[in-house]
Structure formats: C-alpha cells, structure tokens
Design a protein that fits this description.
The protein is α/β, with parallel strands linked by helices. The protein has helices spanning 39-53, 70-77, 94-97, 141-154, 171-183, 192-195, 201-232, 250-255, 263-278; strands spanning 4-10, 14-21, 27-33, 61-67, 83-88, 122-125, 128-129, 135-137, 158-162, 188-191, 239-241, 247-249, 284-289, 294-300, 303-304, 306-312, 315-322, 325-327.
Length: 336
C-alpha cells in the first residue's frame, strides 16, 4: 500500500492538485476549473479524477492540505455575514474612529473606508475593567439582554464582543456569551480575548469583527470540505493553509477564520521557497500568477517576509501573515 500526500490549491479560475507518493517519490499534477457556486464540488471532482488516473485509493492518502481564497474573496467582495457589536458603553464608535494613521496624510478630502458594522448594530453596555484587570463597574446583564435581543431582531448572524482590557480579565465577555445562549440560541459569538488577547482595543475589535463576519461562511465551507472528503473515503482529516505559511485543522480554521485570509497565496510562497532552496538561492522574489490574480513575495536570505497586520477591504486584521502583495491581473493559466 502506497502512502500519498495530496495538495489542493483552489484559485478563482482553476483548482490545482498535486499528488505525491512517499514511497516511490513520484509526483502527479492535475488541474480542473473552479466551480464558483460550490468550490467543494470542484475539489471532490478533481480529487476523484486524479486518484482514478493514478490508481490510488482514497484511504491511501496519508495527508491532505488545502489552500483557499474563499475568506479573502468574501472580505473583498463584501459577501460576509451581518455582524453586530457589543462593547463597553461609550466606545461603540471605536471601529469608525480607528487610528490617526492615514494613507494620504495631507489630503484634505481623504475618506476613511466605511466600517464593516453600521452604527445601529454597534451597541455599548455598562461595564468597565481597568488596566490592571480589576472590575470598576459590573456588567449590566439587563442591558446585555436588551442589546442581544435588538441585534437578533436586526438579523445579525454573528456578534463580536469586545470590552476594554478583557484580555486581562475576560469575565464580562464570558458572561455575555452565556447570556447570548439564553437570549438567542445558535447565534455565533466571538470574544475578543480569545481572538486577539493583547492590548490596543481598536485592532482587537476589528480583528474580532473580521472573524465574526467570516465565521458562518467559513464554517459552512469547511464543513462541506470535510463531508466531501469523508464521502470519497479519505480517512485522514484535511488541513488548511494558514496566512502564516503553516497549516491548521479545519476546526481551528472555524475558530479563527481570519487566519486563512491568505491561505492560498501563502502556499505559493512556501512552495517557491522550497524550489529556491533546491536551487541554492537565498534571495528571491516568488511570483505566483493564476487565472485571476498575481501574488508576489520577497524572500530574503532564505526567510519569507512576514507581517503581523494587514488591512483587508478597509478592515485592519491583526494576525501573522506572509507578506504577499496581490494585484488583480492574471493570465498564468491561459494555456489551459
């Protein structure tokens, strides 16, 4: 019985597959059109075709990893779930006030991007924790119930909860989660102290909002991937590429969907680095052109350039990422 490893890269135009036999060291590639209506259908069809061509049984797959652009596309195209915010009273406009950083410092007509969450869905409740993690004002549970009910009536699918200094004392955020289960069972709740347990409340809030907005979409997508791979007979659960160039479980991606924003592009950079090392090159520029976009990254002295924060569709997201620069110009798959 052969032990094979399978890599899948879902792009906007094509889905690419690479099958590697660990015993014989043979490698096979396959390409099929991406199905926008249901990318998982195209993944399943491509995997089935490639395994049949090479006479490999699904149970022989010892490792499966997937690169995807569904999260970044959802953010850029505004196809995320409606989100509500519950935060410390007096700080509901934090998402709109942002920081003083501006792309055009001397542009008197500069317009900030619109926040992902409109003001009527950003609600403050009485509570306060100080910079030492001490409770200055208790959580007003009655106001929390009112806020949750109001957001539920507005039709939100997720709620981002971000209180001041909750990373030092998460008691109030945890209580909101408990109350949400009572008031609106099934509502997706995202707590900032879990998403980004560090200071700077604006970045913590915006990153939590990003996860909340992507949560329902990614949960459905990853659930479909898991089901389709199981239906094919794959015994090993697949992994998904993270923005930092590593992999994570599907469950981990459901808990932190923003970590997959650069899932597909980061995989191309890691692959490019491997080829560069084989060629003995330490300083290279990886150039990954697909049918829809082109991704470029700098590798200096054998190390991939990394960043810890990027702005996606006007929303700052703080999480480790490969420093990929993308442009909406493809054509690398034109021969297919």
């Amino acid at each position: 019985m052969s032990r094979c490893r399978l890599g899948v890269d879902v792009g906007g135009t094509f889905t690419d597959f690479v099958l590697f036999d660990e015993d014989s060291q043979e490698m096979w590639v396959h390409k099929s059109p991406t199905i926008p209506q249901d990318q998982t259908q195209g993944i399943a069809a491509g995997v089935t075709s490639l395994l049949a061509q090479q006479d490999v049984a699904p149970e022989d797959l010892a490792y499966v990893a997937l690169g995807s652009t569904i999260a970044i596309n959802a953010m850029l195209q505004g196809q995320t779930a409606p989100v509500g915010i519950i935060t410390t009273e007096g700080f509901r406009d934090l998402l709109e006030l942002r920081r003083q950083r501006r792309d055009s410092l001397f542009d008197l007509f500069f317009q900030l991007p619109l926040p992902m969450v409109p003001r009527h869905l950003r609600l403050g409740v009485p509570e306060r924790v100080n910079a030492e993690g001490e409770v200055l004002a208790p959580l007003d549970e009655g106001k929390v119930r009112e806020a949750l009910a109001r957001l539920g009536r507005a039709g939100v699918k997720s709620v981002a909860v971000c209180f001041l200094f909750s990373f030092l004392n998460p008691r109030h955020e945890l209580r909101v989660e408990e109350l949400a289960r009572e008031v609106i069972p099934g509502l997706s709740i995202w707590l900032s102290h879990r998403v980004l347990p560090e200071f700077r409340e604006f970045e913590r809030l915006s990153t939590t909002v990003c996860n909340a907005a992507l949560g329902p979409t990614m949960a459905a997508y990853l659930g479909n991937i898991s089901s389709r791979m199981e239906d094919l007979g794959c015994r090993r659960p697949p992994y998904i590429m993270q923005s930092n160039g590593g992999v994570m479980t599907l469950r981990g991606a459901q808990e932190r969907p923003a970590n997959t924003l650069f899932s597909g592009p980061s995989a191309g950079v890691v692959g490019g680095l491997h080829v560069a090392r084989l060629a003995g090159a330490g300083n290279v520029i990886t150039f990954d052109m697909g049918g829809t976009s082109t991704d470029v990254c700098l590798v200096r002295q054998g190390a991939i350039s990394m960043v810890h924060e990027k702005e996606i569709g006007g929303t700052p997201v703080r999480t480790p990422m490969v420093d990929v620069n993308s442009v909406g110009a493809g054509g690398g798959s034109i021969a297919w």
